[in-house]
Amino acid sequence: ATRKACFTSAAMPLLMRLPGRIPAGSVVTNPVSQIDVMPTILDYVGLELPEKIHGASLQPLINGEEIGWRDYAFCQRANTGRMICTEQFKFTYRVKPRAVALYDLKKDPHENTNLANDPAHAETVRKMHQQLIEVMTADGDPLVAKYEQDPIDE
Q: Reduced to 3 states, what is the DSSP secondary structure of residue 99?
């Protein structure tokens, strides 16, 4: 299966090959993350997932099954940066040094224009930041305690 997924600095393809198990030419259009790779491998080899795993197996998506799936990709970088990417927006937040970025991937697929400081996008910045905090909280990410509630106010 092939999927263009969002990571911290670039969209990256995920290519998988398993003759006899993954049909050639399969394409997954859902947002996936690197945290889904290990659960997928374990699923294909018939092993159970460890408790409290954050990712999910891509096998149902690869098989074309209609399942509930998240509408974002999440990524962490180093000990301070986190990113969430939806079909339209990519939002990154770093604690030290503090950095906030928002890119409209539909209008700016090469991420040339950071919209985080544009007042016209303040609501989107706050919405994406809140979603990032919710994902981090659900995953038990200890860094969430250092994240400001409002990414626009310093």
A: strand
Q: Residue 96: CB partners within 8 Å, gap ≥ 6?
A: 80
Any residues with CB less than 8 A from the CB of 140 and at least 6 apart, and which? 52
Greater confidence, 101 or 154? Answer: 101
Per-residue tokens: 81: 């940066």
pLDDT in tens, 34-55: 889 999 999 999 999 888 787 8
Return d(Cα 32, Cα 17) in angstroms, integer.
Answer: 16
What residues contact residue 94 under an 8 Å CB cut-off, 6+ apart? 77, 80, 81, 82, 100
- 68, 132, 99, 109 alpha-carbon torsion, rounded to 10°: 20
Distance CA 115, CA 17 (A): 38
Peptide bond connecting 97 to the previous residue in cis, omega within 30 degrees of 0 = yes
pLDDT for 7 = 36
122-132 per-position pLDDT tens digit: 999 999 999 99
Q: Is pTM beyond 0.85 here?
A: no
Specify the DSSP class assigned to residue 87: S
- The span from the CA of 111 to the CA of 7, in Å, is 12
